[in-house]
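Friendly challenge for the regulars: who can give me the structure tokens for this chain first? No prize, just bragging rights.
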Amino acid sequence: MTRTRAIWAALGWFATPDASRVRDDPRLPAWHWTEVTIVAANLASVFFVSRYLFAMNDRGLFYGFDGEFVAGVIGQYAEFAGAVTGLPGDLIRGLGNIGFALDPEWFPSYLLSITGSGTVIDYPLCYAVAATELFAGIALCAWIAGFRLIIALAAAWAFFFATWQIAGHPAIENFWRFYPQEGELLAVGCLVSAALLQLGRRGVLPSLVMTAAIFGAIVLIAVTEPADLVLFVPAWCAFGGAALFVKPTRRETGIRLACAAVLCAAAFGTGLFSYLHGFFGYTAASVFPALSERPHTLWNGEVSLLLFDPIRGGDLGHILRQLLTPVRLLVGGGLIGAVYALFTGPLYVRRMACGVLLVEAVYLLIGIANYLVTFWFGPAISYFEMFSFPYLALTGCYLVLHLLWRALSSITYLRPVLQRATPLWSAVLGGLVATLPWTVAASLGHAAQRGAGDNYPLYAPYPQPETEITRLLRREIALSPGAAFRGRTANATGRTLPEEKDWRQYSNVDALVLLATGNYHAGPGLWQDATPTLMEYGPYKSPAYLVIMRRFFTAPDDVVVRNVVGVRQIDQRMLRLLGVRFIITDLPIEGAQERLRLPIVVSQQNRERFSWARGIPDFDLYLYELARPNLGQYSPTEVRVAHSADATLTQLSDPELDPADVAVTSVPLPAGLVPATLDAVTVGKGEITVRARSTASSLLVLPFEFSNCLRLQAQQPNPSVRLLRVDLLLTGVLFDGDLDVTLSYFTGPFSNSRCRLKDLAELQALDISHAFESQPAFGVLGQVRSTEK
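First reply, four minutes later:
Bragging rights claimed.
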């Protein structure tokens, strides 16, 4: 075949969804300059379109409490954690448990958008890079899976417009409410899906190479966003299973099973399995599953995004607008397209369609079963479906374009033109795919700009502006590598709303503070300044942290959920033990020194805008300082042994017990402990250094969480040094003589992979799941507001 014929055939392959696959012709190259040009034009187009739209809608990027949390972590990661191949500890948010596993050096979106100072992110650029990567991942996944290029590009554009927050809700309803790293990891996940569909097709060696790439992708996700693996795995299993169900050859089946065995062996051999088991197993959500109990409802994405919102009454036009939302069109159209592709598509398209239908059937089964008999404690089904959006977009676009092509081909005078590809036809089609989005972008960009204030009423810039309180905290206790640890802050707001029991409700006080001052004075408003807090935000808090927080800092009837434990009871004795030096609260307290008072005015406009603000009067925000908090100097000489978590709580609940003098452990310690003299506790890059002196055996109780993942490096040899769990939660250092050690938290698939499993076994031996047996009122967790039966 001549080069001219090859080019014409390539043009015909692009232009005609029903044409023979040119790349399967051994006489032709697998990729042609025409396709390369068209793909390059689309990638350039999506980058500039997204850059423009995200700039118009910049208030919707990293929006809200979660978004500001992510932005703050990115800005601080290099300074306080550094690049690792596993999970470091978090010294800012909580007591040193695993941090938010987001190393920006793994993600081009962050690397390319962080300024030289390392603290400010170009939000639109960050999102544009991620959107472009995901666009490329979807298109490449589709092409590998057997879809025509026109369908691959159309699906990538459909995903972009239907999901990313390119405009506010009045213009388009977006459901991809995640952050750039999720987009980049989803691109990786799409390529894994395509590889799973291709395993066994080309022979043993190529399949082994793809298996190695799949394993590398799994490791990448495991050390950056481990929780995303939960959302990826069902689709991957469905695609791997579909390839075994839809016309496999015996050779393909054998190679696939062998590759599966290799993957399993690699997961066990490298420690990846034990690392993931420990990551998910040693969490409060795992030990206390009631924390994650899903709402008992058909709606809100608990069964399917098809049922995200109930259809309410109205005229026909109103009902149609409720039915034909972008997300319902995407999910519903994708499912219809999958059924259509299952009967009309080529082999590998049919396999993907089968996988889409299999995984959606599993999601629906779980959602409906949980509605009938509550049992599901994992993420909402809507999160799983969001990670299936690319495949639903592919099958939906396949349906639309395939039917459109057939309809046009049925027109007599168009048939000769469509069946014979011409350069003009291909150029026009490729140009439309690359340039048509600009027309949509112009409309959406203006709509986003017009409605920015109304769409994002709780918008806060990063960094949030300083106030008297945050300025004082930054000066007094903000962390700095190489400097001394000076204590942390506890947020005890929401006390002005005693009738509210759920943090998601009483934390609206923080929102009112934000609206009045521009700063939350909690969470991101403090973390941005590296001000350490008692609050640990996220689903990975340890069982010990939950138990201590629940027992001493919440009321028995407060609702406790998996992501955060709000402080509403102020036990100053225990706060001091945990290294709390400052308390931010909205009601006066006794026994602490008032440092500042900030008047908070609840405007009439905010009372009218937010239903939860109605009836809330103006109030004061207080900053108190506690005397003599534990900065590492607590050195008890009396040890009480408790062989269970319940017994430990009973001991610690004794108001006469002074944690500076008495420690509670699960094992006896040497008699005759003497007080140690602390020289310094300093914070480094993901580590703390402790220097102290003693004339005999001494115990230091550090205000940081204990874990077997702590690595101890002695600057001077001292064989007497030993780490142990003290007071159920904290790190005890038993030593004799001079102490100069550095402690750092680390766990990863290739190193220290079993340490969290050891933590879990240790707490199971203390019967942590029955920690509230003597005080059952505190054992009521995870109360979920039911919206319907």
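The first helix runs from residue 3 to 15. The chain has 29 helices and twelve strands. Your move, everyone else.
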